[in-house]
């Protein structure tokens, strides 16, 4: 009986140490990009907002490289906007953002978007700050 009490006390203490956002039931929505075409360039004008929602402000180059690779083009960041060489529709960009979120942002264990990307050697690891899950991504 004492071991059960110890277990429950330990469980209660561990739960108290978890961050508050773990218990929130808010629904995460994948951001829609505001796309503007200018000549042979496509601008994502709300790039900073997208990075903030996805919690990728420090890893903005990863998302930019992903988009450039998927569209087989080059990309540059300027004043909170992303420029892709070529003409791409908003639908194409939003579809690719959705693919990125499912693969690199959402946790496989708890489904929350509270993840960070970390490199361990040559392997890219997705670490969930909500539940502590870790897993390699391609």
Question: What is the CATH class of the largest domain?
Answer: Alpha Beta
The total count of strands amounts to 7
Q: How is the CATH topology of the largest domain named? A: Alpha-Beta Plaits
Q: Indicate the overall shape.
A: elongated
Percent helix range:
25-40%
Biggest sheet descriptor: 4 strands, antiparallel
Topology of this structure?
Elements: H1 2-17, E1 35-38, E2 41-44, H2 47-54, H3 60-71, E3 75-78, E4 81-85, H4 90-105, E5 115-120, E6 123-128, E7 134-137
Helix pairs in contact: 3-4
How is this structure best described in words?
By secondary structure, the chain is α+β, with helices and mostly antiparallel strands. It folds into two domains: 33-105, Alpha-Beta Plaits, CATH 3.30.70.3150; 109-138. The protein has four helices and seven strands; from the N terminus they run αββααββαβββ. It has helices spanning 2-17, 47-54, 60-71, 90-105; strands spanning 35-38, 41-44, 75-78, 81-85, 115-120, 123-128, 134-137. A four-stranded antiparallel beta sheet has the order 1-2-4-3, covered by helices on one side. The protein has a three-stranded antiparallel beta sheet with strand order 5-6-7, with helices on one face. α3 packs across α4 (90-105). It is elongated, with a radius of gyration of 19 Å. The termini are far apart. The model has no long low-confidence stretch (mean pLDDT 89).
């Amino acid at each position: 009986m004492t071991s059960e009490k110890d277990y429950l006390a330990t469980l209660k203490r561990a739960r108290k140490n978890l961050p508050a956002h773990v218990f929130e039931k808010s629904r995460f929505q994948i951001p829609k990009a505001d796309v503007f075409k200018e000549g042979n360039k496509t601008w994502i004008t709300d790039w900073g907002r997208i990075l903030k929602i996805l919690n990728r402000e420090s890893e903005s180059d990863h998302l930019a490289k992903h988009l450039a690779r998927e569209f087989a083009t080059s990309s540059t960041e300027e004043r909170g906007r992303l420029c892709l060489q070529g003409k791409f529709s908003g639908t194409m960009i939003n579809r690719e953002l959705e693919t990125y979120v499912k693969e690199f942002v959402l946790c496989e264990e708890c489904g929350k978007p509270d993840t960070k990307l970390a490199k361990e050697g040559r392997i890219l690891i997705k670490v969930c700050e909500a539940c502590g899950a870790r897993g390699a991504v391609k």
